# Entry
Amino acid sequence: MTFRLETDRLILRPLALSDEDDLLEYQSHPEIVRYIPWPERTRQQVKEALVKVIATSKFELIDELDYINLGWEIKSGKEQGKVIGQSNMSLKSAIDQCADIGWVTHQNFQGQGYAFEASHALIAYAFRRFPIHRIIADIDTRAPKSAALAEKLGMRREGTFKDGEFFKGSWCDMWLYAILKSEFHA
Ligand SMILES: CC(C)(COP(=O)(O)OP(=O)(O)OC[C@H]1O[C@@H](n2cnc3c(N)ncnc32)[C@H](O)[C@@H]1OP(=O)(O)O)[C@@H](O)C(=O)NCCC(=O)NCCS
# Structure
């Protein structure tokens, strides 16, 4: 199945084994993985993660734990074809029609609006295509760039959870961000 979403500068598409080199560049970077549940991945770990995501990710959010994982491929210019980040969205609860979203941008491609462009397109697609009422993001309070992105997407900070997660060996305060379908302007 060829699934893709297009934005001005990106093609959002399922990851492929051939993306290994691009993914290794950012999935092995300590600053990139600091607040996401990955180790600093080796090439072997990138390969294993790719195999798993290719086998288990879906193109729809219907049943609980369905998830979509999309690489962001540069559409044109000298970096054409390179994967410079990725989105994931999973269905947390079918009854509550609630999904959660995550994002990662390659360290050399941050500060250019790519994460906003990709995340906006995925949120628009999810609200349009599936029975989703609310999309949330759990964000570590030490990740202000991630919080800024959530706010730019129109998400509301609904609370701070003191020691909300035990993550990479320590307790972390977490922000809950959310947006309702009725609040999102595509
Ligand atoms: C969180 C993360 C994805 C944000 O990436 P980002 O590049 O800062 O986010 P955006 O795509 O929204 O880009 C915003 C910046 O691009 C600028 N920009 C340039 N062109 C733009 C455009 N066309 N549209 C929007 N913004 C644009 C904005 O002014 C903003 O700059 P600023 O950071 O100086 O204010 C990134 O920091 C990251 O990958 N972190 C590591 C992984 C991680 O922690 N993920 C989240 C776990 S909670």
Observations:
- Residues 32, 35-36, 103-105, 110-116, 139-140, 143, 145-146, 149, 152 surround coenzyme A (CB under 6 Å).
- The longest strand covers residues 156-167.
- Residues 63 and 94 are 6 Å apart (CA to CA).
